[in-house]
Amino acid sequence: MLKKLVIQLARTLSRGNDRRLNQSADSPHAAAKGPFGTGLPLGCGAALVAAAVLLPTEAVRAEFGFGFNRPGNVLIADQFNNRVIETDPEGNIVWSFGRGPNDFSPRSIIGCNDAERVGIFTLMAGTGTQPGVIPQATNGAVDNRVLLVDPFARIVWQYGQFGKTGSARDLLNTPVQNTFLPNTDILITDQGNNRIIEVSLAKQIVWQYPGPNTNASDQLASPNSAELLENGHILIADQGNNRAIEVSRAQQILKTFSAGGTVSILAFASRLPDGDTLITDSGNARIVEVDSNDVPVWQYLTVSLSGLKDRRNVPTRSSGRKA
């Protein structure tokens, strides 16, 4: 009954409103005709996305039944293989989107930098690859898309365009991180445009930072992550400015975190349950926890200081909770 209700919502409210991408002929699930195995169009619309994420987990597993989204599985943004994969505890790939390191078409997610499971969907951000980074694309490959993909590896929603870069509506420039919000909007860290945007499923930008705030000291420089906090504020890893900032919905900086000004290349920031802030201090090869007054209370060095010359050994992400 729930499945039929969701399908009816899609038919009534969103038929023909989304872009479509035909199913890959070599996909292991190519026999399925549409979302939930129906004959619906592949672009299932904002209504279907919003409703389907509310499906009970057990109902989803019973519907798809091929190892997808089971407890203990791990979702991986496999960046330079141009794909997102889900593995079971034994290391078997049970789900994937993307055709691998030699494919640079819209059917892969080029340079995927972030992925998360949203109900039955997978949200992912493609940043493309720069020239000279990987041998398969010596001239680089442009992919500035945030995608929602269904269990049958079909795109049901996207913001941004493959092969295009920009800041106008439905255009991005190196989206390095994405988060599905409780209100079904999507928070995007649009690094190349030095902004954080909140986008609705109708593809409208409903909030952004810095937005109307034109103060020079409040601008972003290569932001690398954004997190919605319980108090409604947004925590931003402002990488190029060596700081994390907590901003209000009125686009004002409320707090700044930099471990007393010692951070270099702040690659990620997250709020811990006790109110402290966990910072990925990539330039100093450490993870550092600071309290609400920006005083360091804990740190972990990932390499010795002498190892900082080897940039392959520096951290780029951290998250966690205290035991």
The structural class is: mainly beta
Number of H- or I-type helical stretches: 3
Which regions have little confidence, pLDDT < 50, spanning 5+ residues?
A: 5-44
Strand content: 25-35%
**Averaged pLDDT, please?**
82
Number-wise, the strands total 19
Order of helices and strands: HHHEEEEEEEEEEEEEEEEEEE
> Order of strands across the widest beta sheet?
4-5-6-7
> Judging from the principal axes of the Cα atoms, what is the shape?
globular
Distance between the termini: 41 Å
Helical amount: under 10%
Main sheet summary: 4 strands, antiparallel
Task: Specify Rg, calculated over alpha carbons.
Answer: 20 Å
Question: What would a concise description of this structure say?
Answer:
By secondary structure, the protein is mostly beta strands. The protein has helices at residues 2-13, 45-52, 57-64, and strands spanning 74-78, 83-87, 93-97, 112-118, 121-126, 143-149, 155-162, 175-180, 186-190, 195-199, 205-209, 225-228, 234-238, 243-247, 253-257, 266-271, 277-281, 286-290, 296-301.
Describe the overall structure.
- The protein is mostly beta strands and 323 residues long.
- It contains three helices and 19 strands.
- The strands form five sheets. A four-stranded antiparallel sheet has the order 4-5-6-7, covered by helices on one side. It has a four-stranded antiparallel sheet with strand order 8-9-10-11, with no helix packed on it. A four-stranded antiparallel sheet has the order 12-13-14-15, with no helix packed on it.
- The longest helix is centred in the N-terminal third of the chain and has 12 residues.
- It is globular.
